[in-house]
């Protein structure tokens, strides 16, 4: 994606991500016509067998991200037909099986509540409240310098420049109260029909204000596997009907842990001299997600479980996976900064903070 002068994001295929190992190299060769697609399954099998931790494996997470991008905005120079190529889907299924198994092995799922909307919502709020990992948002609010908040934004571009898209896969897989709740949340995420107020577009303004490029995928080669794993987790949940409970739980936890951190992120950017236009994204989420978390907890997650109690375990799993995997990303950034080093895989040259020149009528 990239934005025009009115602030509207336009979907364009991203550049091919670089390979980070043998599996990724095979995938790039296949997508560029230099290798037989049938070889990809063997490459996936070998990568899975060789990895010590698929959840943090640079080669596997990067290749999975590339495979998933074929279902989103696409990759420059890669024909859209590859999206449903049987060899690519077979290789992806091998990775997803191992990825999901590893997640289920490490995600601490809470005790099951009664399968009622109120009980499910209460359990999810309790789960979110108990998430006591290191606070990236407090560090940004009080200590982060300009280079660190730029790194923070680069990590966040991987999901936030396509904000809401992974969870939207759940819409056709739900019905009734849960479907209506998800559509209500997503309508706000997409600007309620106003493209300049889409959350991805508002975030792009912050990215530009920091002197960064708002085209989707520009920083994908600079971020580590743990950042890609966050988007890969929600994409895997969203793309599989059998995991519709997990994508619902993921969104519920995502919304329940958004409002307070975004207040702190906004405070940090204001401390560094960013103006109201640059902090609009964070300020918008302080109010919006305070509403969304109630809808997500009771009507979306609770409504789904009341209608189909068999969804309860996956709702809890998806919520706990959201907190755990996203927490890893925050822990990575904090650990790097506290050690006085970059959280990126490689140095990135950036410009000076930019003054937003989009139509002022789009602003709050």
Give a verbal description of the structure.
The protein is an all-alpha fold and 364 residues long. The chain folds into two domains: 2-105, no CATH class; 110-362, Heme Oxygenase, Chain A (Up-down Bundle), CATH 1.20.910.10. Helices cover 60% and strands 1% of the residues. It contains 15 helices and two strands. Strands 1-2 form a two-stranded antiparallel ribbon. The chain starts with a strand and ends in a 26-residue tail after the last helix. Residues 357-361 have low confidence and may be disordered.
Largest sheet: 2 strands, antiparallel
What percent of residues are in strands? under 5%
Can you identify the CATH class of the largest domain? Mainly Alpha
The helix-strand sequence is EEHHHHHHHHHHHHHHH
Q: By CATH's scheme, which homologous superfamily of the largest domain applies?
A: Heme oxygenase-like
- Percentage of residues in helical conformation: 55-70%
Mind sketching the topology for me?
Layout: E1 2-3, E2 9-10, H1 22-31, H2 39-50, H3 58-69, H4 86-106, H5 117-129, H6 136-142, H7 146-160, H8 165-168, H9 176-189, H10 199-209, H11 225-239, H12 244-256, H13 259-271, H14 276-307, H15 312-338
Antiparallel strand pairs: 1-2
Kindly list the characteristics that best describe this protein:
Heme Oxygenase, Chain A; mainly alpha; 364 residues; 2 strands; two-stranded antiparallel sheet
């Amino acid at each position: 994606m990239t934005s025009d002068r009115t602030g509207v994001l336009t979907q364009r295929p991203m550049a091919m991500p670089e390979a980070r190992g043998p599996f990724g190299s095979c995938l790039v060769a296949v997508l560029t016509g230099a290798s037989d697609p049938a070889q990809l399954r063997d490459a996936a099998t070998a990568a899975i067998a060789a990895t010590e931790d698929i959840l943090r494996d640079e080669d596997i997470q990067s290749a999975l991200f590339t495979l998933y991008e074929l279902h989103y905005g696409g990759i420059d120079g890669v024909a859209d037909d590859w999206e449903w190529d049987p060899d690519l889907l077979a290789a992806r299924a091998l990775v997803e099986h191992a990825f999901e198994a590893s997640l289920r092995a490490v995600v601490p799922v809470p005790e099951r509540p009664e399968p009622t909307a109120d009980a499910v919502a209460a359990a999810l709020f309790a789960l979110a409240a108990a998430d006591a990992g290191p606070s990236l948002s407090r560090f940004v609010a009080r200590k982060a310098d300009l280079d660190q908040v730029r790194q923070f934004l680069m990590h966040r571009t991987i999901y936030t420049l396509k904000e809401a898209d992974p969870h939207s896969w759940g819409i056709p897989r739900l019905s009734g109260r849960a479907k209506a709740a998800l559509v209500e949340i997503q309508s706000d995420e997409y600007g309620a029909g106003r493209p300049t107020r889409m959350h991805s577009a508002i975030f792009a303004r912050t990215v530009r204000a920091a002197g960064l490029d708002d085209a989707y995928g520009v920083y994908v080669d600079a971020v580590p596997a743990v950042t890609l794993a966050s988007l890969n987790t929600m994409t895997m949940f969203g793309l599989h009907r059998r995991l519709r409970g997990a994508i619902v739980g993921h969104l519920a936890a995502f919304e329940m842990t958004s409002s307070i951190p975004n207040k702190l992120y906004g405070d940090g950017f204001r401390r560094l001299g960013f103006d109201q236009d640059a902090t609009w994204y964070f300020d918008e989420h302080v109010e919006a997600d305070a509403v969304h978390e109630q809808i997500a907890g009771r009507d979306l997650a609770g409504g789904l479980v009341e209608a189909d109690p068999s969804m309860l375990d996956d709702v809890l799993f998806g919520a706990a996976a959201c907190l755990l995997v996203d927490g890893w990303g925050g822990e990575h950034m904090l650990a790097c900064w506290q050690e006085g080093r970059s959280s990126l895989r490689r140095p990135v040259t950036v410009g000076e903070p930019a003054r937003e020149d989009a139509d002022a009528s789009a602003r709050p």
